[in-house]
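[audit] Reproducing an earlier prediction to check determinism. Same input, same settings, fresh worker. If the tokens differ from the archived copy the diff job will pick it up downstream; this log only records the rerun itself.
[audit] input (507 residues):
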Amino acid sequence: MVSIPVVKVRVSASADPCHRGTLSIGDWTVPCVVGRAGLVPANLKREGDGRTPIGVFPLRYGFFDPVARPDFPRDLAFPFVPASADMIWEEAGPHYNRLVYAEDGERTDDRLTRKRAEPLFDVVVPIGFNDAVARVNGGSALFIHAARADLAGTAGCVAVAAADVMSLMRHLRPGMLIDIDFEPRSAAADTEDDGDPIEVVRFCGLERGPKLIVTGAVHGNETCGPDAIWKVIRACRTGELSVRRGEVTFVPVVNGKAYRQGTREGDRNLNRDLREAPVVLNYEDRVANVLCPLLRQHDVLLDIHSYRSAGEPFVFLGPENNTGTAQPFARAEEEESLAVRLGPQLIMHGWLDAYAKSVAEQARHGGTGGALSHAVGTTEYMRACGGYGLTLECGQHQDPDAADVAYQAIVRTLAHLGIIDAPAPEAVLPRVIHLADVVLCLSAGDRLEKTWRTGDPVMSGEIIARRASGEIIAAPREGFVIFPDAAAEPLKELFYFGVASDRFADH
């Protein structure tokens, strides 16, 4: 049997103060402290937030100050090297979260070996967090080091009492990992409903203006929204972005349960059949009872998502102005004007009609068929309440550029609405696709003909998929493959089919 040596850091979720915990290696355990604001999921960690990321991270090497520790032992199992006087661990700029070297007498106050009120950094072990491909503002310079004498919380590092430092260093082994998390909840607690609050951050300008709400993680596995929203919040707090008019409300994580699980949903899809629930049946019902009134307080919604299949970012637009019964709407011009200024060139529309066809097809093939109300998500709800809203799909879930697409779109929205003082963003010349049809998976053997990306063009007659029976599913005309799902289950959407739209022909 093989094993990997682990340093385990555990903090009680109910700890007061929230930064006290324990550090253990096997049977050896000592008190420790973490960030003064406690623990935070790793992808919510932000520079300067005073929090320590939850997760498992590598410990590769350590440093010691040869001036302060001339007697530092050289026979430890874990690799340590002397820290030179010119070392700096960057916490900003183009070399973010990297070890760099100062020249001459530059930046003496930033150096690792600088003198401090307490000798906290005579021996340090860098924690391998956000360092493979550093995400700017995602947290930097996290170490294991000596704690302050009063065991105060850190800026995000893990620290043990000065008297325990050398004992800890002797317990370290090459290839070690550090596992940081809350203590496991009791079995009784695990049976309780999740009752964590939804965090809402609002900035109000001193002049009249529109009320914008920006939401992320309606689906918990779509993390680009929270990442971008936290970055914008920080920019608003530091003054990099200054809210002058109206209001902007940020909800970084709408669906907390799904977000913590890393899944699309907690108990059900929150972005289907969104409405207040007089009778609460699940977690998402409880969230909806908070989210719906919050949406009604605003004029404009930007809801940030990503999607499973590969493809470019795009904007989902609502219907044209109409007085019909399904979704009457009178603010299409405002919605279209914002859509072409978010950044992505691709715009799609026709969601409700396409979903209605999916419901009808499911019923035709013996499924329950569902209801058209299941197509109502955040933007549909917003339009029904007299506002308008856009869904921004920032690309594939794991696309490293998705968060930047979202960040730029938020800033562009703030500028377009005049909430911040910034040049009005230029409109793009859009490529517009209308969702015209949907094809269901009818049996487990149905498969896509190749690895399609959302937005891939197809010629009339081109094979898109095949049934388990061998029947060919070909494009009925020139168009586009949308939301292809190679893992579709029977009576779920195998792909949507789109056609070129002339909706913006007069713009």
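[audit] rerun output stored. Observation attached for the diff report: Confidence is low (pLDDT under 50) at residues 186-193.
[audit] end
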